[in-house]
Amino acid sequence: MKEEKENILLESEDTNEKFDCFEDDYGISFEELAEADFAPHIKKRGEDYYFEDRVLDCIKVGDTYYAKVEGSHDNIYSVIIHNIDDEFLEYECTCPCDFPCKHEYATVLAIEEGNYREPDLKPIISYNHLTIKEVLKKIPAEDLKETLIANAKDEYLEIDAHFLEDNFLKYLPKQSYEYYYNNLYNDIVLDHCYDENISIYLNVARKYLKIGEYYDAFIICKSIIEGMHDAGVFEEENSSNLVLKLGVYLRNICRNNSEILKNEDFVNWLKWLKDNNYYDSMYLEDTILNLKKVIFTLDNEFL
Ligand SMILES: [Zn+2]
Q1: pLDDT tens across 250-289, in order?
Q2: What residue segments make up the domains of the chain, in order of their start?
């Protein structure tokens, strides 16, 4: 990589020509696409960043690049660059600049040099949703009336997606296991705010527990553990608050819904946990041991 960078420097200094190997099918290099978007002094700083190896990682997904760039004071910024029809680029960076920044330009250079990877991702499953109007039509009139009265302020009543989720979750469309799993797996692989996604999942699981939709709470817990396992980050979390919380949720699911212990998905999943040594997890162990006791009484012999 160092050698390639030196070559670029030499060629750009000596000939000022664009580099054939970096051109796309239309003959326009990535750097040329970005040419007019950055002020000269930002380009210089971005170039310094690039040659100082501050672009820590860059991933290509379709026409979008996701990079982590080390800024000043050890801050790590997330950069996203969308290539729109090979005609222009759109940039996002988490740094405070409100103009095209050096982190983005350093990423442009990484892409130009082919310094990115293209990981295998799961298919993106879109969120299954209804409009507010469609949800309101599904809620029985009395139920709707009571909730609206209970939440109305003197002068206004705010109804948005969160309000519906908090009050009418049972009328909202369910998401599939694949939705939770695939999106979380992809977020982990792309290192894209996956902690935030897990918090959202846990929050929804808690709401499902509250309204007695235990199977839906279960598939969320399962998707978190399997998604993290398959993306290679579960081990790091083995003794964290997250696993503690998952253990509590799973215990709650089984205590309140013993039928789930006969569900094939659930039983196979416990077997999967065992095969992957997650019984050794400090926080899951207690939960699993309790579940095993119940399962033994159901004559399931495989655990
Ligand atoms: Zn930036």
Answers
A1: 888 888 887 777 788 888 888 888 788 776 666 666 666 6
A2: 2-112, 174-297
User: Which of residues 295 and 280 earns the better pLDDT score?
Assistant: 280
Residues 58, 81: contact at Cβ < 8 Å? no
Q: Residue 26: pLDDT above 80?
A: no
Residue 248, amino acid: V
Long-range contacts for 88-97 (Cβ within 8 Å, ≥24 apart)? 88/33, 89/30, 89/33, 89/34, 89/37, 91/37, 93/69, 95/71
Nearest to 102 by CA among 138, 56, 64, 54: 54
Confidence (pLDDT) at 195: 87
- Collect all residues with Cβ–Cβ distance below 8 Å to 48 and sequence separation of at least 6: 102
pTM: 0.72
Q: Within 13 Å and on the Cβ side, how many CA atoms surround 159?
A: 14
Distance (angstroms) between ligand 1 centre and the Cα of 119 equals: 24
Instruction: Compute, in angstroms, the gap from residue 131 CA to the centroid of ligand 1.
Output: 36
d(CA 170, CA 162): 13
**CA 65–ligand 1 middle distance (angstroms):** 14
Backbone angles phi, psi at 37, to 5 degrees: -85, -15
